[in-house]
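Researcher: We're teaching a course module on how sequence relates to structure. For the next exercise, students receive a sequence and then see the predicted structure as tokens, so they can try to spot secondary structure elements on their own. Here is the exercise chain.
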Amino acid sequence: IPRDKIESIIGPARHFAGLIVGRHLPVAALARSFLCDLARTADQLEPHSAERMAAVGVDLIAASIAERMAMDSPKSLRGSLIVQRAKSYISANSSDPRIGPAEVASAAGVSLRQLQMLFRESGHNIAAWIWQQRLEMASRRLSDPGCSYLSLGELAFECGFSDQAHFSRRFRNHFGLSPRDYRHAALTRQA
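Model: And here is the predicted structure for the students to work with:
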């Protein structure tokens, strides 16, 4: 797992480097069981499902590390745990166009203001994080030959955008190419 992926969830590695996460901890036991099962069945999964399960595995590993960190200093890590929970909720629900900062705060069990403050402390903006997750999902689907049958409008809707024009604008601003050009370039590279 790339270090920056874990750090984006629970903060700088200096806070958790060298920690031993024992399998006796509840979330660690769950993560271990999930990853063992995933390793056994990975070759039977569709690429999209495998990608989603890998993301769940990363979230479980991050939650295991956060659980272990909380044993040492629970007050300072509460915010990290809330941000991690919010990011997991966003990952699981980013295809829903109704998901916004207020819904994420409610799901994380905190006020919108507190969640915005916690995201700022971790160097992120919650609304930008939601859009980034949607755009990354769209880029993966545009690069996936198995999704080439989807029209850009269908793909935009499945990735949480309410209309294709908004999707195209956001995508071009983020990736520097229109979704159509991005798909063509990605599929040409793979061929």
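Model: If you want an answer key for the exercise: The two ends are 27 Å apart (CA to CA). The first helix runs from residue 3 to 10.
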